Amino acid sequence: MPPEKSAYALARYSRSPDSITQSLDWVRGHDSAKFLDSFYFQYGHASIADLGHTIFCFEGISELAAIEIEDEQLWDGQAKSSRYQDFSKGNIVTPPELLDTGGEAVYRAAAEKLLDTYLDIHRRLVEHLTEKHPRPEKMKAGAYKRTIAARAFDVSRYLLWLGISTNIGQVTSIRTLEKQMQRLGASDYGEVRDLAAEMHEACATPPGCPWYPEQDQEPLAPTLAKYAEPDLRSKASREKVAAWAQQNLNLAGDAELPDVDLVRPTDPLDETAATLLYTVTPHPFRVILDEVSGWSRARRREVLDVALEDRHRRDELLREFCSGYSYVFDIVCDIGAYRDLHRHRRCQQIRQKFTGRLGHDRPALVDEAGVGHLYDQALADAATARRKLAEQSAAATHYLLPFAARMRSLFKMDFAEAEYIARVRSGVKGHISYRTVAWKMRERIMEREPELGALVDATPPEVEDALTR
Q1: 8 A C-beta contact, residue 33 and residue 4
Q2: 8 A C-beta contact, residue 430 and residue 468
Q3: Contact (CB, 8 A) for 375 and 366
Q4: Max Cα–Cα distance, the chain, nearest Å
Q5: Looking at the predicted structure, is the pLDDT value of residue 45 above 80?
Q6: Is 180 helix (H, G, I), strand (E, B) or coil?
Q7: Given 3-state DSSP classes, what are the helix, strand and coil percentages for the chain, each rounded to the nearest 5?
Q8: Does the pTM exceed 0.85?
Q9: pLDDT score at 222
Q10: CA separation for the pair 184, 182 (Å, rounded)
C-alpha cells in the first residue's frame, strides 16, 4: 500500500466512525494529497505522517554519508557489516569537494594505500589467528573459517576510512523521512546534500524496486516531496552558537579525563547551554559544564537565546535541548566503535565534528601478529594526505579519516538504557573496542551508584572467546 495512502486511511479511520474497510474504500476514491495538504501541512497534524512508512536503500555511498543518514532517533535500518564483508570489493568514494581538483589524486592515492594495507593485514591476521586458535573438533570447517575471517576483519577494519563505500537499507515513517531529508539537505558535505536531493526526487516517483513489478506503481510520497526543504535554520543556529563560543568561551585547557566520563548535570539550564557549546567546540563536556555552571543565569540564557534566534514557532527545538537525563556519558572512542554505538536509539546522541586531533586507537593484535609497523605507517601516510587536502577543503579531509581515528560524542540516557548498552555491547561476541567502552560505562556507574551498578551484568574485555561470534 503506498505510504501516503496508508497515512490517509489510518488518519481518516481515527476521525470517523467507519470501519477500516470503509476507510480504505473512501481513500480509493479520494485524493490523499489534498487531505495531507490540509491536515498535515496547514493544520500541523504531524502525527498523520507517522502512519505511512517507506523503505529506502542507499548503495555505494560513503561511510561518512551513512553515519549522517543513520543519525535519526526514530530510525530502523541495517548497514553493510565491516566484520562479515570484505570492504575491498567496494569503491572509493571521492568527495565532490575534490572532484576535478589537484586534491582528487592525492585523496585516491592515499585511499588506495589504506585499502592495500587493509587487505595485507587481514591476510596476515588470518594466518596468525589460525595458528593461535586451532579449529575445535566439534566446529565445522566452514564456520571456523568464517569466524577467523571475521576476527581478522575486526582488526583490519581500523584501516577502513570514512570514504569507503557502503550500503544502507532503512525503514522510516514519512515524518521521520521528511525530517531526515531536511537535515541532510543542510549538511556540510556535498555528497550528503546530493543524497537529500535524490531522496526528494525518489519520493515523487514510483518505487524503483517494486515487489509486484507487473502492477502499476504510484509515486512513493509525492506530497511530502513538495515540502522537505533543507533545514537551513538549524544550521544557521549552530553557526551562531559557534561564533558566540569563539568570542566568549575561554577555556584554559582540557583536563585529563577518562575516555568514558559519566557526568551528572544538576541544572537543566547548565546542561542545555553546555550541550549547545559542546556541539560546536572540541572540548570535553565536563570541562564545558564546569565553566558554564560558574556563569550568571543571564549569560547561560544568552547561549540558549543565540540558538533560538532563527527558530520559527512550529520548529522543533535543536537536539541539544534534550536535557534532564540522569546518565550523560562523554565518550572518546575510535570511529569504528562509534559506528556500532550509534545504532542505539533509546538515547540522545550529540557528536562533535570529526577530527584527527584525538589520535588513533591501536589494537593489541597488530603487534602480536607482527604487523604493527604496517599499521602505523598506513595511519601516518593518511594523516600526511589529510594535511595536504586541508588546503582544498576541510570537509574533504574527513573522508580520509580511518576508523582508527578517535572522536568524541555525548550519549544521554536513563539507567535502563545504560544497563542495556553495557550488558549487550560488552559480550564476548562483540568488537573489543566497543566492548571496552561498554565495560567502562559499567565501571563509571559502579563508582557513582554501586547499588545500581551491581545490576549491570557486563563482561570485562579481558574475557575473550575468539571462536564465538
Answers
A1: yes
A2: no
A3: yes
A4: 72
A5: no
A6: helix
A7: 55, 10, 35
A8: yes
A9: 85
A10: 6
Query: What one-letter code names the amino acid at 44?
Result: G
Segment 4-25 shows an average pLDDT of 86
Q: What are the distances in angstroms from CA 275 to CA 263, 285, 290? A: 12, 7, 12
In whole angstroms, what is the distance from residue 420 CA to residue 20 CA?
A: 38
The 10 Å Cβ neighbour count of residue 81 is 12
- Under the banding of pLDDT at 50, 70 and 90, the label for residue 281 is very high
What is the DSSP-derived secondary structure letter of residue 159?
A: G
Within 10 angstroms of residue 144's Cβ, the number of other Cβ atoms is 16
On the CB side of 303, CA atoms within 13 Å amount to: 30
Q: Give the residue carrying C-alpha cell 539507567.
A: 415
Q: How far apart are CA 293 and CA 256, in angstroms?
A: 19
| pLDDT > 70 in the chain, percent | 97
Question: How many other C-beta atoms can be found within 10 angstroms of the C-beta atom of residue 246?
Answer: 11
Q: Do residues 435 and 361 touch, judged by C-beta distance below 8 A?
A: no
Beta strand 406-413 pairing with 348-351: antiparallel
DSSP, res 40: I
- What is the Cα–Cα distance from 323 to 303, expressed in whole angstroms? 15
Q: Is the pLDDT of residue 43 over 60?
A: no
Cβ neighbourhood burial of 437 (10 Å; 0-12, 13-18, 19+): buried
- Cβ atoms 114, 188 nearer than 8 A: no
Q: At what angle do helices 268-280 and 232-248 cross, to 10 degrees?
A: 100
Closest CA to 137 of 449, 462, 467: 467
Q: List all residues 6 or more positions away from 405 whose beta carbon is below 8 Å from its beta carbon.
A: 334, 335, 354, 355, 356, 358, 359, 360
As a whole number of angstroms, the distance between CA 400 and CA 422 comes to 30
Give the residue extent of every domain in the chain: 3-80+165-225
Q: Between 1.10.10, 3.40.50, 1.10.1740, 3.30.1360, what CATH number should domain 3-80+165-225 receive?
A: 3.30.1360
Q: 209-220 burial, b for 16+ CB within 10 Å, e for fewer?
A: eeeeeeeeebbb
**Residue in the block written with cell 577518562:** 258
Which residues is 411 bridged to in the sheet?
329, 349
What residues contact residue 359 under an 8 Å CB cut-off, 6+ apart? 405, 406
* In contact, 183 and 234? CB cutoff 8 Å: yes
255-265 pLDDT per residue, tens: 789 999 999 99
Question: CB of 168 within 8 A of CB of 70?
Answer: yes
